[in-house]
Amino acid sequence: MTGFTGAMFVSAQPEAPSPARPGKVPPIVAAAAVGAALYGWAGVAMTPFAPGAIGVNMNTLGNEWMVFYGAVQWFLHGHLATLYDGNRFTAYLNARFAALLSQPMSLRPFVYPPSYLLLVLPFGLLPFTASWLLFETATAGLLAAALWLGSDERPCIRWFVLCGALLGPAAAINFGGGENAFLSAGLLVGGLRLVRHGRPAAGGVLLGLLSVKPQFAILAPVALVAARDWRALGWCVVGALGLAASSAAVFGAALWQHWLALALGGYWQANAAWVEAARVWGTSVYAALFASGLPSSLANLGQVVATIVAAALAYTAYRRPLPADRQIAVLLAATMLAAPHSSVVDFVLLSVAVMLWSIDALRAETALAMWTLALALWLAMLFNPPLASPPGRLTPLLILGFIALAMGGRAAAAEGVRPLAAAR
């Protein structure tokens, strides 16, 4: 954490004496962020000794990775045909990891498409702890590479962005649980930046790989359509279909047929308890509305409206002459607004969005109120999910406020930066 406190709030112009001057994060914002980061990582450090004593109760370190690792082991032991049987799979996880769990898992089915199983297959060949650490390191490295190599900023600004994205409270819970938000953010940022730099094939394929988490792949094609980048859109389709075909070749087409049947409504019958619990304990617009007292039917309608609004905002951002990093920030935030299901670990996407916005904020005199709004979104994981924390019910409004902030201010044309739509 020493590197975090030193690098996260390094000034782009260290000689500036006032937080209101360009190039410096207001000290009160910096102090709050450092404190929140320390709190998040303290929760991870305490998990092996007293789960939930600080922050989120993760049961044990790597508890979510157990699901992914267990799916690979299920395949390797010849049980692939029953991979999507939630009750049998949960019983296996509780037996397999009994020595590590502080309490048995409740129903925990494997719900990802077979293409995700193919991605994690190499990691599942290692011992559990090594596979968890390697997966988190590799996916964090992907996100770091996307943020570092795709930037034209000075090293001090790049370090600022990396530390804010990878060492915040959302990143801590993602790492501690063995989740895949680093992967989602890395594919989105890396794909969009590659497209931006004139590599539509590589960028489109990366965006296509995000099909392993379909709820976060909704808006990437919208951005490409808005940018009129048909080559990247075509490669996005190639990437998604290529990964699906590869997984079908390894696991068989029957597994895809089974997953598609579940995805189109079968989960509600096969794993109704898990689906309902996951949705209402999630962080989506649906979860916020349901926690506010609306019936499930109206909460679902609200989610549909939010998805349409998010798509419109993403499209608008990629038609306007905004700096590329602000366009990506809008897309990341809108993706969280549009997703029909998300959890606190996925707030890594919001953390990255805030850090990309901050690049432009450091170039100009940015009001404390704007920094405070951005900080609130960066800290959103701490007051979510909505069902457990009433302030979390305002998260969709906070996301909309941030999107308005990111889409406002100086246009790219005023600073000589071409938007993605005009970059070719």
Helices and strands in order:
Layout: H1 2-7, H2 27-46, H3 63-76, H4 86-96, H5 114-120, H6 128-149, H7 155-166, H8 169-177, H9 181-196, H10 200-209, H11 220-226, H12 230-251, H13 253-270, H14 272-280, H15 285-291, H16 296-317, H17 324-338, H18 348-361, H19 368-378, H20 395-407
Helix pairs in contact: 2-8, 3-4, 5-12, 6-7, 6-9, 7-18, 9-10, 10-12, 11-16, 12-13, 13-14, 15-16, 16-17, 17-18, 17-20, 18-19, 19-20
Number of helices in the DSSP assignment: 20
Question: Could you report the average pLDDT, rounded to the nearest whole number?
Answer: 90
Distance between the termini: 41 Å
Kindly name the structural category: mainly alpha
Low-confidence stretches: 1-21, 412-424
Please report the total strand number as a whole number: 0
- Radius of gyration, whole Å: 21 Å
Main sheet record = none
Structure description:
The chain has 424 residues and is mostly helical. It has one domain (22-422). The protein is 62% helix and 0% strand. The protein has 20 helices and no strands. The protein has helices spanning 2-7, 27-46, 63-76, 86-96, 114-120, 128-149, 155-166, 169-177, 181-196, 200-209, 220-226, 230-251, 253-270, 272-280, 285-291, 296-317, 324-338, 348-361, 368-378, 395-407. Helix 11 (220-226) packs parallel to helix 16 (296-317) and helix 17 runs antiparallel to helix 18. It starts with a helix and ends in a 17-residue tail after the last helix. Residues 1-21 and 412-424 have low confidence and may be disordered.
In short:
The chain is mainly alpha-helical. Helix content is 62%, strand content 0%. The longest helix has 22 residues, at 128-149.
